[in-house]
């Protein structure tokens, strides 16, 4: 999970003077309370996370998704750490809901795989889902857009029968990547049928196809749904050098999608997410924060950041080389996914 990527992002933004911008507000997070965690997580699970973080070793730790050799190892203080990142997203949601800010970004959030009763995929508590729940309790209609390379399965499952939330996940197909879900056919159930939207993409999909599909599917659905608030998970493990995934997105494609989301003019809660090329994460989230602030950072990376981490440019100036036959397959797969969403989801929303 490399939490150091959060420090790198903060450092880069600080060196660009982002927090001195007249539109910026920098806040310390708070911890989520056990009552807030219990909105969507089972009390038994919350208690188990606390006990394991204190050194207890119950025989059924695996039942809650924890193991020494898997994605979710037990570590001292993990309850406090997870509650703090979750509380950061809830504080951000409070700031947006109150009108104190138009947009809030919690880079430590976006842990979208956690389920009601177990950890999954590095995620202990599902802060995006809890933030959505916070807005629902205020009577708001919420659109949740997840651009992490991995399917936002935990958030989808929390609201799978709820038509007050439109969940949209754009991701590398679960045929090729964890968690193995996120097919177009996962549409929701009961009142929520047609309100769970998945746009799976082929490995090695690049900027052009990624941005085109986003514009064809995500933007019209958001406008048709007419939400009160936009909640986004902005994972950048879609980046072309990410060691865990296969999408071929650059900073250019990533930021174009962020710009499209920003153009909606909605109250906006953004969270981080995946991303395991740590300097690429810092650059991409710095660019995203610039879009939110309507600030343009110089392309030359600040000297202090370069001395510590290397590199020279904030934005990519080249695209990855992908063999032509794979590009053709990626385009075919993308077209099929878009067509399937249009056929199976669009009619629900009058499109």
Q: What would you say this structure looks like, in words?
A:
By secondary structure, the protein is of the alpha/beta class. The chain has a single domain, classed as Histone deacetylase domain (Arginase, Chain A, 3-Layer(aba) Sandwich), CATH 3.40.800.20. It has helices spanning 4-15, 34-37, 43-53, 78-98, 127-137, 153-158, 207-225, 251-262, 278-293, 303-309, 324-344, and strands spanning 103-106, 142-146, 165-172, 196-201, 229-233, 268-271. The protein is globular, with a radius of gyration of 19 Å. The chain starts with a helix and ends in a 7-residue tail after the last helix.
Secondary structure layout plus pairing:
Layout: H1 4-15, H2 34-37, H3 43-53, H4 78-98, E1 103-106, H5 127-137, E2 142-146, H6 153-158, E3 165-172, E4 196-201, H7 207-225, E5 229-233, H8 251-262, E6 268-271, H9 278-293, H10 303-309, H11 324-344
Parallel strand pairs: 1-6, 2-3, 2-5, 3-4, 5-6
Helix pairs in contact: 1-9, 4-5, 7-8, 7-11, 8-9
Q: Main traits of this protein?
A:
6-stranded parallel sheet, globular, 6 strands, Arginase, Chain A
Helix count from the secondary structure assignment = 11
**Which oligomerization state do the chains in this entry correspond to?**
single chain
N-end to C-end Cα span: 39 Å
- At the first level of CATH, the class is Alpha Beta
Rg from Cα: 19 Å
List the uncertain runs: none
Q: Domain count, please report it.
A: 1
Task: Report the major sheet.
Answer: 6 strands, parallel
- Please tell me the overall pLDDT: 97
Relative helix content: 25-40%
Kindly name the structural category.
alpha/beta
CATH level-3 fold name: Arginase, Chain A
How many beta strands in the DSSP annotation?
6
Envelope shape: globular
């Amino acid at each position: 999970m490399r939490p150091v990527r959060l420090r790198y992002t903060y450092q880069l933004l600080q060196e660009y003077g982002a927090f001195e911008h007249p539109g910026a507000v920098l806040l310390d997070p708070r911890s989520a309370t056990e009552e807030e965690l219990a909105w969507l997580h089972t009390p038994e699970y919350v208690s188990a996370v606390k006990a394991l973080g204190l050194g207890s070793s119950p025989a059924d730790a695996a039942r809650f998704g924890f193991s020494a050799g898997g994605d979710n190892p037990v570590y001292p203080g993990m309850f406090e750490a997870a509650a703090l990142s979750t509380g950061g997203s809830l504080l951000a949601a409070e700031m947006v809901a109150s009108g104190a800010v138009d947009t809030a970004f919690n880079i430590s959030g976006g842990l979208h795989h956690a389920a009601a009763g177990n950890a999954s995929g590095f995620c202990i508590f599902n802060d995006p889902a809890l933030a959505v729940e916070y807005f629902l309790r205020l009577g708001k209609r919420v659109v949740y857009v997840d651009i992490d390379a991995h399917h936002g399965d935990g958030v989808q499952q929390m609201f799978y029968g709820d038509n007050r939330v439109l969940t949209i996940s754009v991701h590398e197909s679960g045929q090729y990547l964890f968690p193995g879900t996120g097919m177009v056919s996962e549409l929701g159930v009961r009142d929520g049928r047609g309100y769970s939207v998945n746009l799976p993409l082929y490995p090695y999909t690049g900027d052009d196809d990624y941005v085109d599909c986003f514009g064809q599917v995500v933007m019209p659905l958001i406008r048709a749904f007419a939400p009160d608030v936009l909640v986004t998970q902005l994972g950048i493990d879609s980046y072309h050098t990410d060691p865990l995934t296969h999408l071929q997105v650059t900073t250019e494609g990533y930021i174009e999608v962020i710009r499209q989301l920003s153009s909606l003019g909605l109250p906006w809660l953004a969270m981080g997410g995946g991303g395991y090329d740590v300097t690429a994460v810092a650059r991409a989230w710095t660019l995203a924060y610039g879009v939110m602030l309507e600030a343009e950072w110089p392309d030359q990376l600040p000297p202090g950041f370069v001395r510590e981490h290397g590199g020279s440019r904030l934005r990519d100036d080249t695209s990855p080389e992908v063999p032509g036959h794979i590009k053709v397959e990626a385009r075919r797969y993308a077209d099929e996914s878009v067509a399937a969403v249009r056929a199976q989801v669009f009619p629900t929303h009058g499109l």
